[in-house]
Recover the amino acids of this structure.
C-alpha cells in the first residue's frame, strides 16, 4: 500500500445542505459532484460529502446515532489571528463553536468547530509545522 | 478559510499499537511523532493517531463507545488488481475485511477494511479519476 490517503468522506444528513455550508466556507465543488455526492479539492486530499445512511450501507456497516466519531479534521492556519478569523467565519456560516481558540499545551493556538452534521474541525496555528507553497504541511 | 484539509486525526485505543499497524501497511512515521501521538505524511495530507479519549477531551466533546463514525477514508489504487493486493495486505496486517472488493455501481471496483480501531478505509479503483505524479487524485 502506498502511503497515501486519497479521499475523506463525511456522512451527512443532507448533501445539498452540507455542500452549501462548505461552499460558504470557501470550498469549491468539483464538476464531478452530483445531487447525492459532493467532491471538493481540499489541498492534497479530496473531501467528499455523502448521505450518512448511504455511506454506512456502502461500507456494509450498521448506521448508528451520531456521537463522537473518533475522527477530527484539522485546518492549519498561518497565524493566531487567522485561527480567530476562520473560527468566526465558520460560526457565521452555521457551525457550532465547540472550543474557543486558546494557547495549546503543544505550543500552538487552536479551537474547534462542528459542522452542521457534527463533524469536528480543529482550526490551528502550529509554529512548529511549516507549509509548502501549496499550503500543505511539511512534516520533518 | 482557504479550502484545505491539513490533518486527519484518528482516535485510537493505543497509539503504539495503531502506529505499528500503519507502519506495517507502508506508512512512515514522522520524526515529529511521540509516544502519545503519531504523524504520517499520507500524500497531500497528514494522518495522525492520537488516543481516542484524549482526542475527545481535546475537542471538548463527550467520548462514546465506538460505532459507525460517519467518516470513511479512501485509498485509491491504479488498478483492480492493486485493490485486491492492498486489501489482502491490510487483512494480513490485522485489519478486518468489511466488504470484499467488487464492481461498484459508479463504474469502479472497491472494498472496505476496518483498521484495528474500527476506522473504515475504502480501497478503490476509479477509472474516472486520474492521479497526478504525486499520486493525488485530480478532480475535474
Amino acid at each position: 500500500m502506498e502511503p497515501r490517503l486519497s479521499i475523506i468522506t463525511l456522512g451527512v444528513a443532507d448533501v445539498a445542505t452540507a455542500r452549501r455550508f462548505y461552499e460558504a466556507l470557501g470550498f469549491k465543488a468539483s464538476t464531478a459532484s452530483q445531487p447525492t455526492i459532493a467532491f471538493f479539492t481540499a489541498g492534497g486530499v479530496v473531501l467528499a460529502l455523502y448521505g450518512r445512511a448511504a455511506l454506512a450501507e456502502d461500507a456494509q456497516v450498521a448506521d448508528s446515532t451520531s456521537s463522537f466519531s473518533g475522527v477530527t479534521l484539522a485546518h492549519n492556519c498561518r497565524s493566531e489571528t487567522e485561527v480567530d478569523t476562520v473560527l468566526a467565519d465558520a460560526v457565521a456560516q452555521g457551525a457550532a463553536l465547540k472550543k474557543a481558540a486558546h494557547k495549546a499545551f503543544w505550543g500552538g493556538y487552536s479551537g474547534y468547530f462542528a459542522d452542521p452534521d457534527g463533524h469536528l474541525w480543529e482550526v490551528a496555528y502550529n509554529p512548529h509545522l511549516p507549509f509548502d507553497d501549496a499550503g500543505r504541511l511539511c512534516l520533518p
The beta strands of chain A are 7-12, 37-41, 46-51, 71-77, 96-103, 109-114, 120-125. Chain A touches chain B through 69 residues (CB under 8 Å). DSSP finds three helices and seven strands in chain A. The helical segments of chain A are 15-25, 52-58, 80-92.
